[in-house]
Specification:
Elements lengths: L26 E4 L3 E6 L5 E6 L7 E6 L7 E6 L2 E7 L5 E7 L10 E4 L7 E4 L8 E7 L5 E7 L2 E2 L6
Amino acid sequence: MRTFYAARTWSPWVSDGGRLLPGTGPAAVTGDGEFVAAVGTDRAIWVAMNLPGSRGFAWRSLGGRTTATPGIATPVTDTVVAFARGTDNAAWYNEFWRHATYVKTGWHSLGGRLTSGTSAIPTMVNTPQGPVYLFALGTDNQPLMRTGTWPALQGWTRP
């Protein structure tokens, strides 16, 4: 991990521990702290949190199974969500830091037939809840997108 400072300089590389599944990369987001999602060698989604006042990142498993790079987003204030392509090639999500109203804990399917990992972008700009965009490749290797106000995302469409 490296940190980019306001002075436009980078910190040296440091290890945050853990072992990633080869061919996958981590996803990161900031919110109430810094959050990272990655695929471990056990093919589970692992998340690390560096909260204000803590002593660095602490990893924990969310379970699930994937072989593709995950996505991560803060779609509503104080909520962090990991996204992944499951072994059924559908998109799945897990709110692992606090929860939006009416969302149960654990993994939930968003459907789809995907051939890539997921990428998630929240667009919270001066609002506590804005649209969320989730991207992945479909079976024809063309981009697919789900968007909406969290957690009510519309079906898969072409961007």
